[in-house]
Amino acid sequence: MAEKSITQEKVNIAVDMWNFDSLAKKVHEEARTLIDYFRFNLIYYQLVKGGSLEFERIRQYEPGDNIRRIDWKVYARSQDLTTRLYKDECEYDIVIVLDVSNSMLIGTGKMTKIKSAALIAGVLAFAAIEAGDSVALVMHADGQNFCSEPSNVDVMPFLRMLTDHSKYGGRKNWVSLGRKLLSNYQDKSVVFMISDFFDCNPEVLLPELAGKFSKTYGIMVRDPIDINVPSGIGPMYLKDPDTGKIFLIDFDKVRKDYMILSKERVKKISDAFHDYGQLFFDMVTEENFVKAFMKSVGKEEVISY
Amino acid sequence: MVLNRKKRVTYFGNFETLKKVHGFRRFYISPWILYIKIIIISLIFLTATESIVVKKHQIAKDTGFMLVMDSSPSMSMPDYSPTRLSAAKEITHQWIDLIGNNTLIGFLSYSNFIKSSVAPSHDHEAVTSELDKVEVSMSEVGASSINTAIDQSISYLMEATDGPDNETVKEKVIILLTDGLDQLSNDTLARAITNDVRIHTIGIGDTSKTSLLFENLSMEGVDEELAKHFKSDFVSSLEMNFTYLEEVADMTGGKAYLISSKEGIMKAMSQASLEEIYIQLNTHYYVLLLVILMSILELVAYSQLGAI
C-alpha cells in the first residue's frame, strides 16, 4: 500500500484538495449513512447534547417542527401527526475546527490529510444541520484566522468555505486557536477538532476548552507515513513543510522506534481527551471516516446509551 | 544534482516524532557546510605550500628623493592656477608633508642654469624654503640645463646617507617635474642607470585652457626677442616631449606621468614615491587562525543543524 506512494515521489503541497462539486457529492454520499446511523441510535444527540434524552411529552404537530420528532407509531395507529418533546432539548452550536496548517496538506496515501479532514468536516456539518443545529467553521493555522458564524440554513455555504484553498497553509499555533475559540463561541457549543495534532500539548489546550464548552471532541487524521514507514526504503530526503528545510533520513535505522513513538503520541493525546471526559477518535486517511467513526463511537464508554 | 534531489524530496509532517528517534543523525542538507569545508581545505593547502602572497603599496623606505623642478619661462603659463610653477610648488609642499620626516628629500630647480639646490636630508624645512624662493624669469631662455640638473641630482643621491650608521641610501629616486625637456646626454643617462637611480618623469601637459591662453598670452613688458623665443620654445615643448620622458623613465626603471591638472601633479608625485612590496602572509599564524575559526564555525553549524 504505502510502499509505492511514499517512495521517492515528490508530494506537491496543496495540490490534492477538493473542489466544491466533488466535495458536495462525496459529503452527501457519506453523510447519508452517518445520519441514518445517528438517527437510529440517537447517538448524535448523545454526542452533542450529552447523556440520554429524557422524554417529556407529546403534542400536536405544528408546522416547523423537526420531522425527526414525529411519533410515527402514534401516526400508524391514529393517522394523527404528533411531535415528541424531550427535556433539555436546546439548540447547540456545533463548531468544527479544521486544522489547515502545512502538515495537513501533505499525504502519501489515497488522499491528503486535509482532503480527508475536509470530508469529515463536511459530513459532520451535514449531520448537524440535518439535526437542526447551527454549525460554525473555524479554519485554523498561524496567520489564518477564519471563523464563521454559526448557521443552520444549509450545508452548501459550509462546503464552499471548505473548498476555499486560499485559506489553507501556515504553521500550527494551538495557543492562538484556543484563544480564538474561547473568545468567539458561546458556552453551549460543541467543538469538533479535526487535526493531525502535531506539536499539540493537550494538557495546555484542553482544560480551558473543556471548561468552557459543552463538549470538545478530537478527531485525529493521520497519514500512513505518520504511523509507519515501510522497510527497505533506505535514506530518504524529507522536507519540512513549515521551514522548507530538507533532511536526509535513514528510516531503516529508526523504523521500530518511530512506530512505537508514533503510537505513544496518539495514546497521550487520546488519554488527555478521555481524562477530560471528551471523545477522541483517530483514523488514517486510507480509512472510510463514516465507518470508522460509527465503529469508534459505538464503542466509546463516554457515550452512554 | 540539485534538480535531481528536488525530484526525490518527500514532504513530511511528523518531525515531532522523528526528532525524538533520529536525533543527532538527522542531517540537514546545507551547501554552506560544503562551502566551509572547501574554504578550510583550500586554506590548509595554501598554508602548506606557503602560496599566500599579498601585494601592497607603501611610501618607499630607505629611499632618497631628489625633486628636480623646471622653472623655465614656460612654467609661467597661467593654464594651471595660478601658474604652472605655482601649482607645482603648492603640490610639492603637500607632497613633502605626506612623505613624512623619515624620508630623505632634496631639491633642485633649473632653467637655463641651476637656480637652487638642496642635498637630500631630513631637514625638509630647508627644502621648502628653497622651493618657495623659486621664480620664473622671462630672460632665462635658451638651452635648458636639464642635463646638469640630473647629473647634480645623481651626485647628491650617491652621497646621501641615512640611518645611525650613515649608510648610503639603498634606493635613489629623481622626480622630475617639467613641461619640456631637451635630450639628456647618453653619459647622464648611463650614469643614472649604472648607479641605479630611478627617474620618474612628470610631464606638465596642456589643460583645456592652454591653447586659448597661449593665443591670448600677454607679453607686455617683455622684450620682443625674448617673447618670440618664449613662444617658439613653448610650442615645441608641447608637441613632442612626453614620448622622450617615457623613454627616460623606462630606461632608468621609473615611470612617466603626463598630467593635465593640478590634482594630477599630486597623484603622480604620490605614485612616484610609493614602492610595491610583496608580503608573504605569516601562514603560521593568520591563515591557520582562520582555519581554526572556520572549523569552529563548521562545528557550530553542525550542532545547530542537529548533527552533533
CATH architecture of the largest domain in chain A: 3-Layer(aba) Sandwich
Number of domains of chain B: 2
Question: What order do the helices and strands of chain A follow?
Answer: HHHEHEEHEEHHEHEHEEHEH
Total count of strands of chain B: 12
- Unreliable spans of chain A are 1-12, 300-305
Name the shape of chain B in a single word: elongated
User: Average pLDDT value of chain A?
Assistant: 79
Provide an overview of this structure.
Chain A contains eleven helices and ten strands. Mean pLDDT of chain A is 79; it is low at 1-12 and 300-305. With 305 residues, chain A is an alpha/beta fold. Helices cover 40% and strands 20% of the residues of chain A. Chain A has a six-stranded mixed beta sheet with strand order 5-4-3-6-7-10, with helices on both faces. Chain A has a two-stranded antiparallel ribbon with strand order 1-2. Chain A has a two-stranded antiparallel ribbon with strand order 8-9. Chain A is elongated, with a radius of gyration of 21 Å. Chain A folds into two domains: 2-49 and 91-299, 3-Layer(aba) Sandwich (Rossmann fold), CATH 3.40.50.410; 55-86, no CATH class. In chain A, helix 2 (20-41) runs parallel beside helix 11 (289-299). Chain B has 308 residues and is of the alpha/beta class. Chain B has two domains: 26-52 and 281-308; 59-277, von Willebrand factor, type A domain (Rossmann fold), CATH 3.40.50. Helix content of chain B is 48%, strand content 21%. Chain B contains eleven helices and twelve strands. In chain B, the strands form three sheets. Chain B has a six-stranded mixed beta sheet with strand order 6-5-4-9-10-11, sandwiched between helices. In chain B, strands 3-12 form a two-stranded antiparallel sheet. Chain B has a two-stranded antiparallel ribbon with strand order 7-8. In chain B, a hairpin with a 3-residue loop joins strand 5 and strand 6 (114-121). In chain B, helix 3 (31-49) packs antiparallel against helix 11 (286-304), helix 4 runs antiparallel to helix 5 (124-133) and helix 4 (84-99) runs parallel beside helix 10 (262-272). The longest helix of chain B has 29 residues, at 224-252. Chain B is elongated, with a radius of gyration of 31 Å. The model of chain B is unreliable at 1-6 (pLDDT under 50).
